[in-house]
Amino acid sequence: MKKVAIIFSNAPYGSNLGLEGLNIVLSMTCYIENIGFFFVGDGVLQILDYQKPNHIFSKSYFPTFKMFNLYNMHNFYLCYESLLQHGLSANVFYSLNVHICNFSNIRNQICNFDVLLNF
């Protein structure tokens, strides 16, 4: 079975890339068991708890990320340097159980996957 890495590197509401990535993962969960989620660059903003997309007349898709716990998916990696670049700390509450790693560790983790999809 192939191992798939989903890399979120874009902000949540600047484009539809985050939502499209999420939809692809939802469709893959029936067929692929080993999926890793990587949040780098602006992608770290995808899983912040305190999003208020209704202020820009958008619908929040963040709660869907929490659903992956039901699928027993726990491979969530968050880039520490990206957190710092956005003025966030590792102590910011994330609803998902994420592994906060430096970029070189994330790169090493990504190398263990067969397929990479960037959103």
Description:
This protein has a single domain, classed as Hypothetical Protein Ychn, Chain: A (3-Layer(aba) Sandwich). Helix content is 25%, strand content 18%. It has helices at residues 17-28, 63-66, 80-85, 103-110; strands spanning 4-8, 35-39, 76-79, 99-101, 115-118. Strand 3 (76-79), helix 3 and strand 4 form a beta-alpha-beta unit. The model has no long low-confidence stretch (mean pLDDT 85). Keywords: Transferase.
What is the CATH domain class?
Answer: Alpha Beta
**Shape field:** globular
How would you name the oligomeric state of the polypeptide chains in this document? single chain
Biggest sheet, spatial arrangement of strands: 4-3-2-1-5
> What's the CATH H-level homologous superfamily?
DsrEFH-like
Number of helical runs? 4
- Name the poorly predicted regions: none
Tell me the radius of gyration. Answer: 14 Å
Provide the CATH architecture: 3-Layer(aba) Sandwich
Keywords: Transferase
Protein name: Sulfurtransferase complex subunit TusC
Family: Belongs to the DsrF/TusC family.
InterPro entries: DsrEFH-like, Sulphur_relay_DsrE/F-like, Sulphur_relay_TusC/DsrF
Task: Provide a short characterization of the protein structure.
Belongs to the DsrF/TusC family. The chain is α/β, with parallel strands linked by helices and 119 residues long.
